[in-house]
Fold this sequence. Notes:
2 helices, mainly beta
Amino acid sequence: MKIGFLLLTGLFNLSSAAAQSLRYSISQPYAGLSAYSREQIDALSFTGNQAALAQTEHAGIGVFGERRFMLKETSVYTLGAAFPTRLGNFGVQLNYAGFKNFNENKIGLAYARKLGKMIDVGVQFNYYSYRVPAYGNASSINFEIGAMMHLTNKLNAGIHVYNPVGGNINKDKAEKLASSYKLGFGYDASDKFLSGQK
Length: 198
């Protein structure tokens, strides 16, 4: 019984074991948590895992914004748009974080499709840049990929990889763009309640 409790506790605390940091806002990952649901897919789901875009049945646009501590310097905004087609589904993601003296931007174009009843795959190509007026600008092109497995009608699991090949962000190659690997799962207890972890 104790081992089962420890395993369950460890499973829900995996998100605190980070090997490297990326600049996400505190609540931004929750906008994409619906990626691991079949019942609650929305226009921002693919921002958590591009494979979720394959389950989109209707075109839509989603907007997310956060201003932590009510400071404009900590503002984060995300816009996601999803477009289903017969050849697969497409998505557009725009991110902006920061203020006039330091800001980061990401523009992404995503594509996803179903590979049978149990597996969905997706890919997104990004143009990432940051701007510091006193020091200059830097940018990079990268990609991210995701896969989803529908283990049952209610249980879904997935993997998401951001920038798997690394790469440099500026011309003198002094700064590297981080890579990120995430696993996630979701359980649709009902059409109104999702339990998940990523």
